[in-house]
Amino acid sequence: NGNDYPTPDGTCIRDYIHVVDLAKGHLAAVRKLDQNPGLVTYNLGTGKGYSVMDIVTSFQHVTNIEIPHVFGPRRAGDIPASYTDPMLAEQELGWKAEKNLQDILRDAWRWQQKNPDGFN
Fold first, then answer.
1. How many H-runs (helices) and E-runs (strands) does the chain carry?
2. Architecture of the structural domain at 13-114
3. How far apart are CA 7 and CA 103, in angstroms?
4. Claim: this prediction has a pTM higher than 0.85
5. Which of 50, 30, 49 is nearest to 40 (CA)?
6. Mean pLDDT of 21-45
7. Secondary structure E strands in 2-108
8. 99 three-class SS
C-alpha cells in the first residue's frame, strides 16, 4: 500500500528471496551450528531491494498477464525500504542466494497454477 514513499517510484522496497534459496540458507546455518554451537545472526536475503511496482512489472512480464492495481493509503509504521546485508552468511556459511526476481515470480506463478486452492 502507498505510493508516496521517498523511493524512485514511490512504492516501498523490500528484499525478496526464493523459498529454495531460503531453505538452503537454513541448512547451511544448521550445519554451521553443528560445528560451532552458539548464537550468530545471519541475514538470509539477496541484498537487493525491489519496489512493489518492480514486483508488479516483473510479474506481468513473467506471466504475460496485465495486473490491475490500485494504490491505497500507506500502512501505519511501514518503512520506505528494507533489505538484507547477507555478507556474513556468504563469508561464514558459504551461502548466497542464487535465484533472481524473475525466477522467484515464475516459480511462485507455476506453483499457484498447479495449486489454485493453496495447501489442501
1. 4, 3
2. Alpha-Beta Complex (3.90)
3. 24
4. yes
5. 30
6. 93
7. 13-14, 50-51, 81-82
8. coil
Instruction: Quote the CA–CA distance of 59 and 108 in Å, as a whole number.
Output: 10
Task: Reply yes or no on whether the pLDDT at 120 is more than 80.
Answer: no
How many C-beta neighbours within 10 Å does residue 28 have?
19
- What are the C-alpha distances in Å from 91 to residues 19, 32, 49, 116? 21, 12, 21, 39
The candidate with the shortest Cα–Cα distance to 45, out of 97, 92, 103, is: 97
Maximum pairwise Cα distance, the chain: 50
Contact call for residues 89 and 28 (beta carbons, < 8 A): yes
Domain boundaries along the sequence of the chain:
13-114
Per-residue pLDDT tens digits for 69-95: 999 999 999 999 999 999 999 999 999
What value does the mean pLDDT take over residues 42-55? Answer: 97
CA 3 to chain CA centroid, nearest Å: 19
Per DSSP, the three-state class of 14 is: strand
Alpha helices in 36-117 (DSSP H): 52-63, 87-88, 101-114
